[in-house]
What we know:
The structure holds two protein chains of two kinds.
Chain A: E1 7-10, E2 13-17, H1 24-41, E3 45-49, H2 58-73, E4 77-81, H3 85-94, E5 102-104, H4 107-119
Parallel strand pairs in A: 2-3, 3-4, 4-5
Antiparallel strand pairs in A: 1-2
Chain B: E1 4-9, H1 12-28, H2 33-54, E2 57-66, E3 69-78, H3 86-89, H4 104-110, E4 113-119, E5 123-131
Antiparallel strand pairs in B: 1-2, 2-3, 3-5, 4-5
Helix pairs in contact in B: 1-2, 2-4
Amino acid sequence: MMTRIPILKLNDVLIVSIQWELDDQTAIQFQEDLLNKMHETSALGVVIDLTPIDFIDSFIAKVLGDVINMTGLMGAKVVITGIQPAVAITLIELGIRLNNVMTALDLENGLDKLYKELEA
Amino acid sequence: MNYRSSVDIITEWDIVAARQLGRNEAKKAGFGTVDQARITTAISELARNIYLYAGKGRIEIERVTDDGMFGIKIVASDDGPGIQDLRKVMEDGYTTSGGLGAGMPGVKRLMDEFKVISEPGKGTTITATKWLH
Lengths: 120, 133
């Protein structure tokens, strides 16, 4: 049973809302789908919203970190939005750092940040 | 009251099943959202270690009481190769899998009590407890 995460295009930006707990296969499929979609659409930026996610383990964190680096290689910028307090606390306690990542409180702020970054 | 439930870890999907069971138990036991996330994450890491290093094993989740305190105990056990150097695996950043798991020090920080018993060639049992404060 494989679920795929929908990736929406809005002008030059791709928007992803991760709505449910990610299993390994879904996370890896998402990595590939996002890069393909970027290639297809020539998107300049990506917002990944994690608001509904209530925990992130080291595997999911690694996949997300990889996605961010891969997206950077393809010349686009990523903003992660909606990380919940419990998720931020457990990630740091676990010893995981997502370095060089733009983050924002919610999708709205994330899009603002991304557009400013793209204009700069 | 010594309620106990378990998930056998054989495939990647069992990692998901184990952490879902853990989260439900933590919620039922009255833990707040941050502790629920800590317990769920710890189970996910321990289940992944079993899957990566031992191939198969088991996660047991138990409700425990001690001196009026109430908590949840996770027991992760396997009959895998065991841990060669226990002191090394408790160092931050030590990995033999190329960094797939956050490692044991991370899990230890998420929980209140943490104990490893491992015998090379025979297997590993990790016990981690979170108390309801």
